[in-house]
Amino acid sequence: MAEESETRGTAHVPVLLRETLEFLRVRPGGRFLDGTLGAGGHTRAILEAGDGQTQVLGLDRDQTALALAAKNLGPLAERAILRHLPFSQFDTALAEAGWDFLDGALVDLGVSSMQLDTPERGFSFIAEGPLDMRMDQNGGSGGGEAPARTLVNKASPDRLREIIRDLGQDPMAGRIARAIEKARTDKDIETTAELAAIVERAYPAKWRRESRNHPATRTFQALRMAVNSELSELETFLDTIGAHLAPGGRLVVISFHSLEDGMVKHFLRKAATGCVCPPRQPMCTCEHKPVYTVLTKRPVMADEAEQAQNPRSRSAKLRAAERLGEGVGENAGETAEGQAKAWKRKRPRP
Question: CA of 128: how far to CAs of 123, 125, 137, 224, 269, in Å?
């Protein structure tokens, strides 16, 4: 997640845009998925790069983001199909659109600047707002998540400690969980400012003085990830997207959290590996076949110029892979529709 202090007041700008287009290998006639539409910056660039022939299926859990993206796309929206869905449910949108295959898929994880800058959403402690943090406040995308105030006021101290420790990677998780438990015995914790103050007081004075960021940064990040089931969303997406990419189709994931980046890294490493039998086993019995070629041995990060222009990009990491399959070499210049013809009968259904 972008730093609170870095993101506040910054207009939403798509990160690693040039690199995203290069790895997606956008070309006329292609069909692409933008699983985290946001304000539409990445989708707009994909449509423009496609020379008037490319199509994008854009998804978002946030209805406000969908409306903003439709406005920002302008006339280009005619070649975009926008749906109110989490990216883990992309296959539902594909079926509705009648698309069998994709040339590329993109997800830009985390919370957007426009969400952080809206106090009513409860993502940030910079300005006081209700403890919400739901990306889908209306539940129309099939989420139905409870707001953060429910988790903060009802979860056991052990559960809160686990969330703050595992998702926030905060060494003070135990102290923070106990402080929250003590504070809520008097009255429910309702606002972002209340929670931030409780977390700040839980930190040792020396840590508060020496910390580069506000002590509540990691707690807010952890609660947001828990409220929106972000890691399980990503896991579901990674497990299913490969079956919907045509041979030669590209997958691009931009993450802002070490847990998310680690999940993508290990998934792609395993998916690009052949036999996974124990090394000393004389014969292969797993029949595991590689699904991807990894295009990024190390994560791609924003250069100094982009970081200066868009502070949110400082923590962004991009990983990319290409879907393997019959005929990738000789058909690399074709779109998903063209490549799929020879592959369709052999493709295993998920």
Answer: 10, 6, 18, 16, 42
The rounded distance, in Å, linking the Cα atoms of 60 and 138 is 13
Q: How many helices (H) and strands (E) does the chain have?
A: 16, 7
Asked if residue 161 lies in contact with residue 169, where contact means CB atoms within 8 angstroms, the answer is no
Encode 242-282 in three state secondary structure.
HHHEEEEEEEEEEECCHHHHHHHHHHHHHHCCCCCCCCCCC
- Model pTM? 0.87
Give the whole-angstrom CA distance, residue 287 versus residue 36: 34
Residues paired with residue 105 on neighbouring β-strands, in sequence order: 33, 251
HSE-CB of 334 using CA atoms within 13 angstroms: 16
The pLDDT value recorded for residue 97 is 97
Residue whose entry in the numeric block shows the structure tokens 């041995």: 297
Reported as a pLDDT band with limits 50, 70 and 90, residue 138 is: confident
Which residue bears the tokens 């707001």?
147
CA distance linking residue 320 with residue 301, whole number of Å = 12
Chain position carrying tokens 């997207």: 241
Domains of the chain in start order, with CATH, are 4-113+230-343 (3.40.50.150), 146-227 (1.10.150.170)
Residue type, 302: A
Q: In whole angstroms, give the CA distance from residue 115 to residue 121.
A: 7
Strand partners, 107: 253
Q: Yes or no: say if 196 and 126 are a contact pair by the CB < 8 Å rule.
A: no
Put the strands of the sheet holding 245-255 in their side by side order.
80-84, 55-60, 31-34, 102-108, 245-255, 317-323, 292-294
Average pLDDT value for the chain: 88
